[in-house]
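Predict fold of Tyrosine-protein kinase receptor; 800 aa.
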Amino acid sequence: MSAFRMGSWVSLLGFYWVLMELWSIGAACPASCSCSGTRIACVDQDPERSINAFPVLQSEIEMDNITDIYIANQSRFSSINDKDLHYYRNLTNLTVTNSRLTYVSRLAFQNNLRLQYLNLKDNNLSSLSWRIFRHLNISNLILSGNPLHCSCENMWMKLRLDEGVDPQDLKCIAEGGRRKPLSSLNLPHCVVPMATLNVSKVTELEGSDMKLTCNTSGAPSPELIWNMAPLVSYYKIETSGQVSELHLHNLSSLDNNCRISCSAENIVGQHESSVVLDIRFPPNISKLMDAYQDHHWCIPFSVSGNPKPELHWLLNDLPVTEGLYIFTKIHDFSDKEYHGCLQLDSPTHINNGPYTLLASNEHGRDQKTVYAHFMRDPFEGGTVTEPLYYDPTTEDTPIGPPDDRVAVYVVVGIAAVAFMGFLLMLVILKFGGNSKFGIKGASSVISNDDDSASPLHHVSNGSNTPSSSEIGPDAVIIGMTKIPVIENPQYFRSNNMLKSDTFVQHIKRHNIVLKRELGEGAFGKVFLAECYNLSPELDKILVAVKTLKEASENARKDFHREAELLTNLQHEHIVTFYGVCVESDPLIMVFEYMKHGDLNKFLRAHGPDSVMMGDGPTNRPVELTQSQMLHIAQQIAAGMVYLASQHFVHRDLATRNCLVGENLLVKIGDFGMSRDVYSTDYYRVSVGGHTMLPIRWMPPESIMYRKFTTESDVWSLGVVLWEIFTYGKQPWYQLSNNEVIECITQGRVLQRPRTCPKEVYDLMLGCWQREPHMRHHIKDIHTLLLNLAKASPVYLDILG
Ligand SMILES: *[C@@H]1O[C@H](CO)[C@@H](O)[C@H](O)[C@H]1NC(C)=O
Ligand SMILES: *[C@@H]1O[C@H](CO)[C@@H](O)[C@H](O)[C@H]1NC(C)=O
Ligand SMILES: *[C@@H]1O[C@H](CO)[C@@H](O)[C@H](O)[C@H]1NC(C)=O
Ligand SMILES: *[C@@H]1O[C@H](CO)[C@@H](O)[C@H](O)[C@H]1NC(C)=O
Ligand SMILES: *[C@@H]1O[C@H](CO)[C@@H](O)[C@H](O)[C@H]1NC(C)=O
Ligand SMILES: *[C@@H]1O[C@H](CO)[C@@H](O)[C@H](O)[C@H]1NC(C)=O
Ligand SMILES: *[C@@H]1O[C@H](CO)[C@@H](O)[C@H](O)[C@H]1NC(C)=O
Ligand SMILES: *[C@@H]1O[C@H](CO)[C@@H](O)[C@H](O)[C@H]1NC(C)=O
Ligand SMILES: *[C@@H]1O[C@H](CO)[C@@H](O)[C@H](O)[C@H]1NC(C)=O
Ligand SMILES: *[C@@H]1O[C@H](CO)[C@@H](O)[C@H](O)[C@H]1NC(C)=O
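Predicted 3D structure, encoded as tokens:
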């Protein structure tokens, strides 16, 4: 070893010495020894200071750390007694050499199960029993230089030498004092014992009888011992001479897998032979308990049986088909039983019911039933405590998970998407100059007798839009669609929310000059317009105006209510509502104009596939960066925090309903086109009405029970995040609406988008917890996104 190592070793030793001095009052480490952290060495040659007993340290903890004990040249050291090494549990190496060791107790190493290296060279040992080491796995045993006798007691050393375990030159003293090599030792009545069971495998039926015979040999005559764990079966042992019989009567299944061994032991050594009982018996289900929710749902059971029983489940007496979402899982085999679960991944109320476990093997069968309840059945007896957030005036039954009871169909097919896409491209080509979303169209003016601006009614007669009767008295329109507030009882039933003195700004018709049509929605056309005298600083500003086609009495009431509502929702990430113009038909609402249009289109235009929409390779828009995506997400979350603080449930949060302005400013709102352009995003329910639902954005409880809450908005926000990180892909685009409903109600969630960082996907998963109360809080989502966005600064100018 290097000088450095030696030096550090010495200083370490010194350090330990100091520590020892501090710790131990009195001589814990004998004077002739040195005690370091893991080693004790006693090598002082002064006979006066020789140890005469095994060194013992102050505390058990110290002794626990010792792995190495070295004793040499201790002239008064003669024995290792029962408890001397008791606390050196981690001892691996022991050397006692050149001392006067004469006696080693049979229990000396009882507690030193790690002992591997034992050097007892040059001592005064005349014999040593193999039994001292029977429980150990000694790899080096050095005994040379001892006055060993050529006795049967030392025969095991010869056998060990014969095996070549630790080659050394061992001699023994024969009668008459002559020394001879131990390897040539040959004693007439000194033979290692053997034990033989006449069977190697026992397979018996429960309740039967059997007999085992053990034949032993060896000299001196070995002691014959049967070893077994306490047996439940009745048994009797009959021994005569070297042969013993074990009679087992009425074998109990509880003794299955028991090991029975027969051992023979004498002074030379020991040998044993064993069998494992294989007792066959019919299944017994000892436990079938109530379902509990862990990571998944589990109906726990314990079942015994040999051979291993086959397990099948019945629900309401019908076989349960096991698959990806429901399957039997055995966790472990212990206490002679198989313990497992019927594991259910996100079960719903249709999974409620009596579960019967059938266990069978060739010897019989057993069954037990337990009632499992996972989720309240919303159809049962009107005990629903939470309101179903759906218009109570219609005879509408909430849809259940997809099954035959509910006839559902897709409204608009792929052809429509393609067609709309084509139209969209035409619009873009027509109006797109350098900027795809730039304003270049010819101006137009609202004409009172223009057919397209027919009498106000906020619902068209179009087949894929709701009719006003379905919307009910609470219907209000936000942005330009009816969805968000209409069925939001929280909002309308808490009176204080809607300030009675809300002042809706009125704008004069002559101050609005239409420039071009932006689109046509379910409720009327949307135009880009210039609005004069709206703000004191500016002469005119660009606005988006929404016209209402029809104006029935109801529609007018709705219109005013919506205007009041919008006036009250003011936030930097909610699209700004400027006011109304009700001087004449059509009625008009004036909104802030967001240059880049809806976020979904924007994402697609700035994604990898955007070359399709761009003006050619040279003008291809820059792909959004991750930090820009985070910036977008963060702004939507900010808007949602605000809506939640106003106890407002959006119900249709999606990128198509967000708008993008300059400098990547994003706001929540929409311009009423989304229903038409994005009709495949919605799912039409035929039961009791023609409600369109954005199921791909909806959590299970909204799909199944039409329950919309701030928590369901959080779910949708998770989907919005997914949309952002996929550059505007449709969630579950590869699946049909029916398949989507099945997936969501089964508990599947969208996969991590390729470009999505883990933190963001974790956030999505936090939004998609099945239990609404388990989902992230909207405020936390916003904070997290804000921090992530801050961590990667946005370079806005790329997008202008
Ligand atoms: C025992 O060893 C451990 C780690 O090897 C050490 O942290 C501890 O201080 C030692 N205890 C004593 C009493 O030496
Ligand atoms: C000593 O053995 C005990 C178990 O007996 C173990 O927990 C401990 O880690 C061991 N200490 C050292 C230093 O090996
Ligand atoms: C023990 O003493 C002998 C001589 O008496 C000496 O050669 C040997 O090095 C000593 N052993 C130790 C470990 O000090
Ligand atoms: C223990 O003995 C073995 C075998 O001789 C040796 O390799 C090892 O280094 C020793 N361990 C200690 C801590 O002395
Ligand atoms: C060696 O052991 C024998 C007994 O086995 C004893 O009579 C003798 O005194 C011992 N020799 C020494 C030097 O201790
Ligand atoms: C005994 O030790 C050896 C190596 O030292 C190891 O290979 C063997 O598995 C051990 N046996 C038992 C029963 O611990
Ligand atoms: C074992 O021996 C007993 C008699 O000693 C006999 O009855 C039994 O059938 C034997 N078992 C086998 C498997 O040979
Ligand atoms: C026991 O074994 C010996 C020799 O191995 C054999 O001679 C004897 O017949 C056996 N006895 C029984 C009962 O199997
Ligand atoms: C066997 O044991 C079982 C209980 O373990 C008992 O019910 C049965 O009566 C017993 N049969 C005989 C034949 O003793
Ligand atoms: C089945 O197991 C239960 C619980 O361990 C036990 O009470 C019952 O006796 C067993 N039934 C049979 C037929 O073994």
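The first strand starts at residue 33 and ends at 35.
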